[in-house]
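Appendix C reproduces, verbatim, an entry submitted by the partner laboratory led by Prof. M.T., so that reviewers can inspect both the input and the predicted structure.
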Amino acid sequence: MASNPFETADILDGIRRWVEIESPTERPDQVNKLADLVASEYRDLPATVDRVAGRDGCGDHLVTRSSWGQDAPGILVLSHLDTVHPMGFIERLPFKIEGDSAFGPGIYDMKGGAYLAYHAFRQICAADVRPPLGITQLYVSDEEIGSPTSRALIEAEGRKAKYVLVTEPARDGGKIVTGRKGVARFDVHIKGAPAHAGARPEDGRSAIRELGHVILALEAMNDLKRGVTVNVGVVRGGTKPNVIAEEAYAEVDMRVPTMADAGELVPKILGITSRTDGVSVKVTGELNRPPYEKSNAGAALYEHARELAGELGFELIDVFTGGGSDGNFTAPHTATLDGLGVDGKGAHTHYEQLYISSIEPRARLLHRLYQTLR
């Protein structure tokens, strides 16, 4: 073993191997290729690896469990193997190092953090003394599309755990995440009546015009002071410029900071009706990630991590963010700490990067959490 078990160059080389296997969510064959590599990393460790077969066009999920501590609630580590970047993106964004930055598709969100959690677990296994709690690491294949095939697994494992650590990337210079907005998605389907736009416009009922009313109603629900955002991100409608549009469609994203906000606004959006005779409006959708509100247990877990970080020589500041993660599924019932991955910037972009200087301190923090949580 190296004299420093958290040697940055060694960890970065491991991250590179994971990054160089591209794993877009929509390519289960590629996600599974990465899962093969991740599973192989555990072969010589005191751990079991269960593979949950993928479905509905998604890849497999991996559940790795320490050989100790599985008879009582322990630590669940949540990571995802999928990325948003399409196949071939690595040619545009190859793994490279420039100064304190290492670049590559998914390196910041979140292969860097997933690898840190694995590496910290490996160092725990190398020690003579086992920590008090068992450690389960769950790697899912579909987080970037809302975890449709892994949510039940995440919730089941989360309910069994005492603590949940999420290896999503750090925010804004290394901040840890102790709260996230809930995410809801809706589809709006509008049906009107077609007609010739020049000769018989009075016979038509424009679905596009009605969609305009719906968009204004949705936009009016935005309340930045409360932290509520409603975004109509996709619209489609009509067939030709000289035809009154018979159909129109929109996709809507809503973010809410509390369950009370969700309870108010989800029914309000689902209840939107047509303002025009002869036009129907149908809205479908739901809250697909509950808000991750900072509970007393979550706050205590953060305070413990903050003290450990101080002992390691860096300040750990927490933040509330609008982006969702798999931590949203566990936070309502289990102490959850998110944003434990690498620091960096550019998630989902052509310049995605991690900061190399963040690798060792954040790997050590995960290691100390594994050692000290009780």
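The mean pLDDT is 97. Additional entries are available on request from the coordinating office.
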